[in-house]
Specification:
The structure is a homodimer. By secondary structure, chain A is mainly α. The first copy, chain A, is built from 10 helices and no strands. At the A-B interface, helix 6, helix 7, helix 9 and helix 10 of A face helix 6, helix 7, helix 9 and helix 10 of B. The first copy, chain A, binds a DNA duplex (18 and 18 nucleotides) through helix 1 and helix 3.
DNA sequence: GTCTATACAGGGATAGAC
DNA sequence: GTCTATCCCTGTATAGAC
């Protein structure tokens, strides 16, 4: 039992340290030694748990994905109206505490671009995210066209978050919410739907 | 004269090789040795021209920026109508040949995040791009609100290009153009402008 | 201006002890 | 399960020759 606790704690510490250092120094720039040291462990423990630096990276990303989904779902439930729900999506990527995760996502993206296996994992993860967004209209009417536009919604969130980061004043909340609103609400009202 | 040609060619070869390898293997993953070798030169020549790996990176990005602006401007001139002009913007980031530059931009972004000097250069570059976009309405009426929305336009282009890359079928041209159209044409027609 | 050779540092991963 | 010690490779940058 004590053993189990110690093992679990080591794993958790390593994951937290890796998330920090990958985001801060990049995947290549964060040494396994530095990660282990920050977790108050050594490389031996790290390799015992994850086997390689890349598997550690995957574990970090998987854990993050679960946490992020939970947080966003809770925020959506808490919101009172359509605009607030869109605003909470925007806040999820634009708030200061998200910078770290945006940095990590950037790293993962670069990494995946030259690693087919990692790219496949990344692709699957995004498809799952899109599918999650496609479920939103079942609960909230304002997300009517979230299904078909899901990839664009994610892309817009990511891209605007990037601009927000180079220059926080450049993207106003109102601008972001308005752009999202256009994507989630049915755009075909003026179009060719019979 | 011969000397001058040789020097200029060396510089050009090094820049091209660096652009290739930075995009392909990342900034950290591309060694100065590999870059020099691909340019049919040696590290000596590289350091003679650029002094450091980072200065080489800046030179690569600066050259790219000039080229890209020229190409996009030409495409805009060639287009016949509003929709084609928006489509040409989308094509500029979504066409297969742009993948390389998107990869490089990703690398630069990650690099800048942990290098204040590089971040400042990146920021300036984006502000300049936004200013360039803000000039568009002077020539084309459909870009009426491009000024205020310039950062969002760039962000949306970047973000959708990313999604397009994980899964090319996920973002249709029509979807991209419609989203851009919403951003460039005045959004206040239905709003509170008296 | 460009090459060759080298100084100097750091990283990922493994072996063997406890 | 975790630590210490070590192997082996690769990288940036510089010095000195031509």
């Amino acid at each position: 039992m004590r053993q189990h606790d110690r093992k679990a704690e080591t794993r958790a510490r390593l994951l937290a340290a890796a998330a920090d250092l990958f985001a801060e120094h990049g995947i290549a720039g964060a040494s396994v030694d530095a990660i282990a040291t920050r977790a108050d462990r050594t490389v031996g423990a790290l390799y015992g748990h994850f086997g390689s630096k890349e598997e550690l990276l995957f574990a970090v990303v998987d854990e993050w994905l679960g946490d992020a989904a939970t947080v966003v779902a809770a925020e959506l439930e808490l919101a009172d109206d359509a605009e607030q729900r869109l605003a909470s999506l925007w806040r999820a990527v634009s708030q200061p505490s998200s910078e770290r995760w945006l940095a990590l996502e950037h790293e993962v993206w670069s990494h995946a671009r030259r690693n087919p296996q990692a790219m496949e994992r990344l692709r699957r993860r995004y498809v799952e995210t899109w599918e999650g967004i496609a479920m939103l209209p079942l609960q909230w009417p304002e997300f009517a066209s979230a299904g078909t536009n899901a990839p664009a919604i994610v892309g817009v969130l990511f891209g605007m978050a990037m601009m927000h980061q180079v220059s926080p004043g450049s993207i106003t909340d109102e601008m972001a919410v308005r752009t999202l609103h256009h994507l989630v609400s049915s755009p075909d009202t003026e179009g060719a739907t019979p």
